[in-house]
Amino acid sequence: MRVAETDGALLGCVVALPPHSGHVRLAAIAVRTGVRRQGMATQLLNEIVKAHRTSESPLISALVVLEDVALSRLLLACGFLGTLLMRGNGPGAAVHIHYQHKSRVAYMDPDSRHLVPVGDNEQLAESLAPSDHAVTALVPLGDGSAFEIARLEQDDPATLQSGEAAAGIAFAGSILAAITFLLGFAFSSTRFPDDVRLLLIGATFSTVLSLIVYASASGELARIRSNSFGKIMKWGNVLSEYGGVLPFLISLPVTYAQASGNPWTTMVLALMLSAAIAWYERSDFSVARRFNRSPGELALVVLTAASPTVGAGLVAADVTSWPWTTVLVITLLLRTWLYLFRRGAEADIAERRQWQPR
Predict the structure, then answer these.
(1) Do 60 and 52 touch, CB atoms closer than 8 A?
(2) For residue range 145-180, what is the model confidence (pLDDT) as tens digits?
(3) How far is the CA of 182 from the CAs of 176, 186, 255, 267, 275, in angstroms?
(4) Are both 174 and 73 inside the same structural domain?
(5) Phi and psi (nearest 5°) for 25?
(6) Which of 93, 99, 228, 281 is the most buried (most CB within 10 A)?
(7) Do 171 and 93 share a structural domain?
């Protein structure tokens, strides 16, 4: 239950009752007359939905009398869909619409929509008879209100997850090939720093681990044992980025410094790479952007972005690079530990409307 109160006075409440572990039914939604139309019911309802949104989200539903236009409008605005028309027993029994909250995005066919007046029970029942049709909006008409009925299409989660696992395997395999090539060059050069060789060996090991994790995610899909695909993919993505991709990219200026012997072009390349990593860390493509950030983590991001310039400068100046490599490895290990063990579900991602045009 969620309540809103001021100075001990109850202003509004939303009550949710669980008939069983996989279902939550909204039993009451009420707001005091003098404070209505201020968004209070929307806030309380969104808090209820957020509280029950987990990896195994239950069905959140509500039964609304057909004539209760205000409550239907509230539920539709909060991500609910009207899926069934339910008639009571006996003559004169009230007719209800069954609303349920969409736990994942469904796509609306913009060319398959029509309006049904609120009072036309027969047409509404006929329109909601197909399982892929639902009430998606409540619109005003000249002589009243009407339900907008739309046909919805849902993406197949298994197909999407299978494609994500395949993309992860292909990407990690490509990175492993590039790291292996660079490692071969490192062993063929007598001037290549030993610490960077060890860094590349560690990147090879981490990338192989990410391939194993991605393969495990594919096996999880094949066996359909549990809903742990997201957790497995998080391990693969973090190991691939912080154990494989970033060490490989940061080692490139060092490799160039050994091959060219030109400190000026080496530093230009290193600065460009540092700028590119800094931009990537701030972009929506970075793994770090999927989690909440802290000031300590921002310091680790700065160290990661500065590593190509510092490392290339040390190698170009023929100065020992062991301290730099040690700091880099500690930084990447801390970030890996942070995202795998100290961060929960992904955050800071703008939520999309629960149904939208295809």
Answers:
(1) yes
(2) 999 999 987 666 667 778 888 889 999 999 999 999
(3) 10, 6, 8, 19, 22
(4) no
(5) -105, 130
(6) 99
(7) no
